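Below is how a single chain appears once it has passed through the pipeline. First comes the sequence as given, then the structure the pipeline wrote out for it. We keep one example in the README because the format questions we get most often are answered faster by looking than by reading.
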Amino acid sequence: MKKKKSKDRLVDRLKEQIKTHKKAFALYMFLRLLVLITLVLQLLHGNYENAFLCVLTLILFLIPSFIESRFKLDLPETLEIIILLFIFSAEILGEIQNFYSVFSNWDTILHTINGFLCAAIGFSLIDILNRYEKFHLNLSPLFVAIVGFCFSMTIGVLWEFFEYGADKYFHTDMQKDKIVENIYSVSLNPEGKNVPIKVEDILETNIITSENTYVIDDGYLDIGIVDTMGDLFVNFIGAIVYCVIGYIYVKKRDNGSLAQKFIVRMKD
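Resulting structure:
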């Protein structure tokens, strides 16, 4: 009986979410259909790694509903739509459809959105605790915004650690190579001094191995650092944007403002 009542309550909550978040639910069903079609196609072509990504995407799609049902939180429909589109864009379009290579700024856009979403998580958690009478907190809006920003940047740094580890130990290329025309190097100083010299207008770089010779035209092949710093910078921008929005909302508590469409709240 208890299990049945628990299931009934869960079903009622899901029905309530569908009613209140009609647009997000319609988008979820549409994206889910696309992922299922992609899954079938990948299985037919024997691409089992991509098929796993499709299954992972379907699981990730359930996260917003799970959070709302399990923790009794109210995710604004706008924020939920952004989360669903982010997951689909990263896994299906980015990885399987190779948008990372087709569109040069695809990874940059996703890292910016990631900074925004992670700031939303950190900011909202502190704001909820701040308003929850059980914890007796009275943190200023500025402090809540700073915590949300720091949370987002920490997640961004941890992700770059993951990318570096995957490249080093699993021989992937998550930290994409970049071609640069000018570098500053202490190692190339002919006098051996600890003074960087500028190497500019690089025309060509040759990479010679025991089996092949690779020629990179118009520059030097930078492995990782430019991509990593670019990702952290746009994560910084996304986090700043959300924290400014959140700060304004917490300062005024204006439920009619644009900010309330991005703030996670406790259900009544």
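The chain has two domains: 1-102, 104-176+224-268.

See the next section for the split statistics.
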